[in-house]
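Minutes, structural biology subgroup

Action item carried over from last meeting: produce the C-alpha cell record for NusB/RsmB/TIM44 domain-containing protein (Gossypium laxum). EB confirmed the sequence was re-checked against the source entry. Recorded below for completeness.
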Amino acid sequence: MEGIRSSSVLSCYYSSKTHFKLRRQPLEHCFLSLPPPPPPPRHPASRPKVRISLPSMALQVQDQQSFHKSKEMLPKIDKSGRFCSPRAARELALLIVYASCLQGSDPIRLFEKRINAAREPGYEFDKASLLQYNHMSFGGPPVTTHSVEEADELLRSDEQDSAIEAEVLSAPPKLVYSKLLLSFTRKLLVATVDKWDNHVLAIDKVVPSNWKNEPAGRILELSILHLAMSEITVLGTRHPIVINEAVDLAKRFCDGAAPRIINGCLRTFVKDLAGTSTAQTSNSKLEVPLQV
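Output recorded by EB:
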C-alpha cells in the first residue's frame, strides 16, 4: 500500500486565467473508484423544444429532418459486430478526457480501468443497439408540426435515440469497439496527455476570451481542441479530416456556437503550425556548415 500511495497520476485543475491543466498528485486524491464515466452532455438545444402557438395550436419542435436523414448513414460495424469507424474512437476518447477532468483522474488510467473493469453479474449488452446508434445525430432549425400527436411522436423518437446513446456509451468498451479502435483511442489519449501543457498555450492564443473566463463551463469544448491538436501534431492525421471530425463532435455534444468557434481555432492552429515549420526550414537553409 505504501508503494501505491507514493505513486502519482495526472489530474485536472483550473488555473486562474486559463482553462484546466494537468498536474501530478497522489493517487489517493483521484476518483478512480467512481462508476463508468458519463457520456458528454448534449446541449439542450439539440433536444426537441415545444412551443405552442395558441391561434393554430401548431407545435414548434426542433428540426428532426437532418437527424432522420443521418440515421440512414449507419455506423461502420466489423464482422464481430463492433464499431470499426474512427469516428467512434474519437468519440470514446472525448468521453474519457471529459470524464477524467470531471473526476480528477488520469485519462489513460481511466481508459485502462474501463477496459479492464469486470462486468456486473447478469449484465447483457444488446449488439443490435449498435446498428441503431447514430454518430451523426445533429440538431437543426425548427419545423412546424400540425398536431400534438406528431410532436409527441418526434419527442418519443428522440427519447428512444437518447436511451440507445446512453446504453452504447456506458457499455464495456470491449463489447462496443474493435481492438483496432481501442488501440487508436489509447494512442490518441497518450498523445493528448503528452502534449497537454504545450497545447494549453496554443489554445489560449486562439479561443475567445469568454471561454477563458469560464473554463469550468467549457471542459467539453476544450477537450475537443486538445484531442484534435494532438491528433494533428503527434499522430499525423491530415488536418482537414481532424478538423471535420472535431466540428462534428462539437455539433453533436456542444452548443450552437461551439462548432464554428472550434473550426476557427483549429484552422488558426494549423496555420500557425505551417508558419512555424516554414520559418524553421528557412533558418536551417541559412545555416552555413562549418569548415573542418
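Discussion: Residues 258-286 form the longest helix (29 residues).
Next step: EB to file the record with the rest of the batch.
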